[in-house]
Amino acid sequence: MGAYILRRLLLIIPTLLGIMIINFALVQFVPGGPVEQIIAKMQGEGDVFEGFSGGGADAGGEMLSQGSEKYVGARGLPPELIKELEEQFGLDKPPVERFIGMMWNYARFDFGESYFRKIDVTDLVLEKMPVSITLGLWSTVIAYLISIPLGISKAVRDGSPFDTWTSGAIIIAYAIPAFLFAIMLLVLFAGGSYWKWFPLRGLTSDDFDQLSALGKVGDYLWHITLPVLASTISAFATLTLLTKNSFLDEIKKHYVMTARAKGLSEKRVLYGHVFRNAMLIVIAGFPAVFIGVFFGGSVLIETIFSLDGLGRLGFEAAVGRDYPVMFGTLFLFGLIGLVVGIISDLMYVLVDPRIDFEKREG
Questions:
Q1: Which residues cross the membrane (predicted)?
Q2: pTM of the model
Q3: DSSP 3-state assignment of 304?
């Protein structure tokens, strides 16, 4: 197992490098870099992308190629100012040199400073992480608490009216996009048009610091209820069907028939023999499910509920062309995702020691 883990760890390097190369190369061809963002603000345009979307010939006429006036809207600005902006953002160097320098710093976990927030990327990520961890962890735990009992009940009652109706409800839940479900929750329960039972935005109330310990817990749970429900719905549906199918596969195997033939009760067969084997894929997939909820659905959920988390941070960095935040978070998330893949494999071995990945690879 040690050799397998070592190989997986070594594969992280080329995989992560490939991710960074592809994204860095794509960014070089995307208009509206940080210099253009500053120029747009200086010209009072507000949004740099307006120059790209309006009237092709006029926009093209603004794209000058002489000296410092190679940027959209740079006409009339001193070349010295443009050069100073390029030096400030490190854009005066060739792309290859910039990429090598960036990866050297990232290898030492030095992610630099945000262009526009004037704060270290690491500190920025740590500041936003509690919100995303809240959504990811609670959503995953609730999804497992609901999905496992429901999936087992569906497997035991396969083909019954209960199985049919719950399958219909699960399919509907899976088909509803998380952002649409989030909007529906806001409309129904956050004062949109009906009941105002939950707050509209934020993770805590304005007077959170003045509340008692019990009051803080209650306020926190009150605020996270709707965002967690919105981010749980798709994971809950997938896990329920996965649990059911896994139990059905195990129930049909010969060792189950043998256990029944020995006179063991159905409950003993189900939870003493079937449960461990059937739950292997479900339990071992916990890290991957958590990361999927943590990174996948957080952008829209955080935006809709005005939560200042990592998803929203990455989106704003991409729109604002804040390259240190963009590439720093991409590197961190890519690294975490690859490490979680290894952890998932270790979870398989922990749940069922009979699994040997080295023999499978051989």
A1: 9-30, 131-152, 164-190, 220-243, 278-305, 325-351
A2: 0.69
A3: helix
176: CATH: 1.10.3720.10
In a shared domain, residues 86 and 142: no
Question: How confident is the model over 34-69, as pLDDT tens digits?
Answer: 667 676 666 655 554 444 444 443 433 343 334 444
- Shared domain for 266 and 140, answered yes or no, is yes
CA atoms 81, 87, 91, 92: torsion sign? positive
Quote the pLDDT of residue 290: 67
Q: Which residues of 198-217 are buried (b: 16+ CB within 10 A; e: fewer)?
A: bbeeebebeeeeeeeeeeee
Same domain as 203, residue 137: yes
Three-class DSSP category at 321: coil
CB 321 within 8 A of CB 33: yes
Q: What percent of the chain has pLDDT over 70?
A: 75
Determine the structural domain holding residue 234 and report its residue range.
122-361
130 and 102: one domain? no
> Domain total for the chain?
2
What does the alpha-carbon distance between residue 341 and residue 195 come to, in Å, rounded to a whole number?
42
| Residue 172 tokens, joined | 């509907």
Residue 81 has a pLDDT of 66
Q: Final residue of a domain: which of 113, 139, 170?
A: 113
Q: In this structure, what DSSP letter does residue 208 have?
A: G
Structural domain ending residue among the three candidates 113, 135, 165: 113
- If asked whether residues 277 and 328 sit together in one domain, one would say yes
pLDDT tens-digit profile of 184-220?
888 888 776 678 888 877 777 777 778 888 888 888 8
Distances (CA, A) of 335 to 12, 14, 125, 261, 292: 7, 11, 14, 49, 14
Cβ neighbours of residue 297 closer than 8 Å, sequence gap 6 or more: 178, 231, 234, 311
pLDDT tens-digit series, residues 129-140: 888 888 878 888
The verdict on 171 and 291 lying in the same domain is yes
Q: How far apart are CA 284 and CA 19, in angstroms?
A: 26
